[in-house]
Amino acid sequence: MVRCVQLVMGPAGVGKSTYCAALQQHGMVSRQPVHVVNMDPAADALAYEPAADVRELITVDDVSDELALGPNGALVYCMEYVLEDVEWLEEVVTSFVDGDWVVLDMPGQVELYTHFECVRELIRLMERQMEARCCAVFLLDASFLGDASKFFAGALTAMSAMLQLGVPHLNVLSKVDLVKRRLPDRGVEGEEEPWMVVPGEEEREEAFEGALERFLLPDVPALVAELDAKMDARFRALNARVGALLEDYSLVQLVPFSSTDEEAIADAMLQVGMLLQHDEEREVRPQPEWEGTV
Ligand SMILES: Nc1nc2c(ncn2[C@@H]2O[C@H](COP(=O)(O)OP(=O)(O)OP(=O)(O)O)[C@@H](O)[C@H]2O)c(=O)[nH]1
Ligand SMILES: [Mg+2]
């Protein structure tokens, strides 16, 4: 009896909840049940139909009012509360059938994954007490990784979470459709007669692939050189070490994702499935009840 649990994490606004909604939709179409659990006690409206919602147990607003804590303190308090009152999560996770996906839509405070103990302890409890196989899906927003310093900052944050949580880890580059949308619709300045060049769909597609490659197959020495050019010379050795660290451990590998791209959604599912050897847990089951509702 094993449940495969994805913890969807990353900084605020990277698209975690949208990723969960896309997975749920994809699961309906591909007849692979995906149960999304809202684990964000400060969430507003949800873009998906939650199988369970932590706000049934505790909310940031209640904690802020009762304990006069600020939003971050209240959130950490809520997560520690979930850990103490773990029966709630246990009931949720163990209510699902073996082989179904359980997707936890986590809050956007990145310190929860890089500094505090509560998420790590929750994972250990799920593994020990709830027969869960957990992995971290860490989202990084394509629109925020534009230059070398942002790229390294993002990759290092994802790496901190990976080291802190100690579970199989997948870095996902979210909102890649925005990379395409932000491409210039005319020739780039500096090129010959740029105002004459209006790329067609094919050229835009090629430019998109090129822009995406910068993220997906990053040229680390070139990124390090970009950093060196911006920073004081005394940081060169540090930049080189950080670059080597990320490269040596393949920590800059990202899976591209866009919530509107069915192929990207299927691929993300496949990658996470391989990470947790999910297929081994799948059961062949009769037609699901929700057939016909999509
Ligand atoms: N263009 C585009 N926009 C996206 C995509 N995914 C999410 N967004 C938008 O990004 C914004 C934030 O998305 P959410 O899914 O709420 O992000 P989140 O990480 O759950 O945010 P928090 O829970 O507040 O940390 C919303 O306006 C989404 O519509 C995507 O793939 N493409
Ligand atoms: Mg969210």
**Number of E-state strands:** 7
Helix content: 40-55%
Q: What is the CATH first-level class name of one domain?
A: Alpha Beta
Mean pLDDT: 86
Low-confidence stretches: 193-197, 284-288, 290-294
Strand content: 5-15%
Instruction: Give the termini distance in whole angstroms.
Output: 29 Å
| Bound small-molecule species | guanosine-5'-triphosphate, magnesium ion
Family: Belongs to the GPN-loop GTPase family.
Keywords: GTP-binding, Hydrolase, Nucleotide-binding
Function: Small GTPase required for proper nuclear import of RNA polymerase II and III (RNAPII and RNAPIII). May act at an RNAP assembly step prior to nuclear import.
Subunit structure: Binds to RNA polymerase II (RNAPII).
Description:
With 294 residues, the protein is α/β, with parallel strands linked by helices. The chain has a domain at 3-175 and 251-281: Rossmann fold (3-Layer(aba) Sandwich), CATH 3.40.50. It has helices at residues 16-29, 60-67, 71-84, 87-94, 111-114, 118-129, 148-165, 176-181, 201-216, 220-230, 236-248, 262-276; strands at 3-9, 34-38, 52-53, 101-105, 132-141, 169-174, 255-256. The chain has a 7-stranded parallel β-sheet with strand order 3-2-4-1-5-6-7, with helices on both faces. Helix 2 (60-67) crosses helix 3 (71-84), helix 3 (71-84) packs parallel to helix 6 and helix 10 packs antiparallel against helix 11 (236-248). The chain is globular. Residues 193-197, 284-288 and 290-294 have low confidence and may be disordered. It binds guanosine-5'-triphosphate and magnesium ion. Guanosine-5'-triphosphate binds next to helix 1 and helix 8. Small GTPase required for proper nuclear import of RNA polymerase II and III (RNAPII and RNAPIII). May act at an RNAP assembly step prior to nuclear import. This is GPN-loop GTPase 3. One of its GO terms (molecular function) is GTPase activity.
